Amino acid sequence: MVSVGNVVNEVLVILIQEGRKDLISILWEQNKKLIAWLAGKFYVKHMDRCAAAGVEEEDLIQEGFFALLDAIKYYKAESGYKFTTYIEYPLLSKMNQLIGYRGKSDQLNDTISLEESVSTEFEDICLSDVISDPNAEFEDKIIHDDTLSKLRETLIEIIETLPEKQKNILLAELNDTSKDIIVKMYQMTDDEYNRLRGQALQNCRKPHNIQRLIEFMDPYRLGLKGTGFSVWYHSRTSSVERAVEKIMDLEAAIATALCI
């Protein structure tokens, strides 16, 4: 029998991973204040975007429950890190998705036929030819978010192979922890921090690690997403231009993650 009052997060998570699903509600209650604080901080920072998407602070907190479930799934006791470290990223991701998806929701309009003719500079076409497909946009975003999520997982796996001090620094930075906090947390000097961080990044750039990241830069699969006629009609940019932009965005994401 588990004595709820004295059980730390990490023990609860291990028990849940072993099949004790009844303990999820207890874990939620223990972390709800932290999640509410993070959600509140996000809401204040992105109040305009939340308002435009019709998202309230309570909606963000509710997303925190699903972030908690993701954190339970990915938590590894052998990593030595607190469970709360695993909550922040999925929570941020889900909150961004929430205001992104709702913000793209179409407003109700008067009913018109999709076969209605639309005149362009070159020819007459049907309205259905130029209306973007919400399902395609949603699918593209899921693929993009899934790619970035897998990229992060791969980076964490690479970082986990580093010496302890180097690993601690990069994992902390990956969770948006500032240099000042890291220095105090691990009781090191600025010079020691800079030296260890430089060594860590150099190790991450070794050929066998870079090779693992190359798979996330598939220009033929990712670069050509969203380069059809309807996108051209609205943006007036060529498929080549949009493909290059998408490839550059992905390269920038990888470069930022490795601080290149």
From TrEMBL:
Signal peptide: none
Name of one Pfam family that matches: Sigma70_r2
Entry GO MF terms: DNA binding; sigma factor activity
Alphabetic keyword roster: DNA-binding, DNA-directed RNA polymerase, Sigma factor, Transcription, Transcription regulation
Coiled coil: none
Transmembrane is among the record's keywords: no
Record GO biological process: DNA-templated transcription initiation
Gene Ontology CC terms, in alphabetical order: DNA-directed RNA polymerase complex
Residue stretches making up the RNA polymerase sigma-70 region domain: 29-87
InterPro entries: RNA_pol_sigma70_r2, RNA_pol_sigma_r2
Record SUPFAM superfamilies: Sigma2 domain of RNA polymerase sigma factors
Record carries keyword Transcription: yes
Protein's name according to its UniProt entry: DNA-directed RNA polymerase specialized sigma subunit
